[in-house]
């Protein structure tokens, strides 16, 4: 099941929690994950389908600057 996928934090490596999902195109979603350990926020553009494709979206500010 795709919803069970929880990526590792790009800063500390812990598992992240899904915070929100937003549609960005007819076949894509923007999934926002937050790390409870360090506060890092990572966003993935996900293409829907039988084998979803995940693409990490770049952030403009590091985790420490968002606290």
Basic shape? elongated
Order of helices and strands: EEEE
The third-level CATH topology is N-terminal domain of TfIIb
Number of discrete helical segments: 0
Q: Please, how many domains? A: 1
Q: Count the strands?
A: 4
- Helix and strand content put the structural class at mainly beta
Arithmetic mean pLDDT: 78
Give the percentage of residues in beta strands: 35-45%
> Given this structure, which CATH class is correct?
Mainly Beta
Distance from N terminus to C terminus (CA atoms, Å) equals: 32 Å
Query: Percent range for helical residues?
Result: under 10%
Largest sheet: 4 strands, antiparallel
CATH architectural name: Single Sheet
Indicate the low-confidence ranges by residue numbers.
none
Radius of gyration: 12 Å
Strand order of the largest sheet: 1-2-3-4
TL;DR of this structure?
The protein is mostly beta strands and 67 residues long.
Could you explain how this protein is built, in words?
- With 67 residues, the chain is mainly beta.
- The protein has one domain (2-61): N-terminal domain of TfIIb, CATH 2.20.25.
- The chain is built from no helices and 4 strands.
- The chain has strands at residues 17-25, 28-34, 41-47, 53-57.
- A 4-stranded antiparallel sheet has the order 1-2-3-4, with no helix packed on it.
- Strand 1 and strand 2 (28-34) form a beta hairpin.
- The radius of gyration is 12 Å and the shape is elongated.
- The mean pLDDT is 78.
């Amino acid at each position: 099941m795709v919803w069970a996928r929880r990526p590792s934090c790009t800063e500390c490596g812990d598992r992240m929690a899904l915070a929100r999902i937003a549609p960005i195109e007819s076949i894509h979603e923007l999934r926002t994950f937050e790390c409870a350990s360090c506060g890092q926020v990572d966003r993935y553009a996900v293409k829907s389908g039988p084998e979803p494709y995940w693409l990490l979206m770049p952030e403009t500010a590091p985790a420490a600057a968002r606290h």
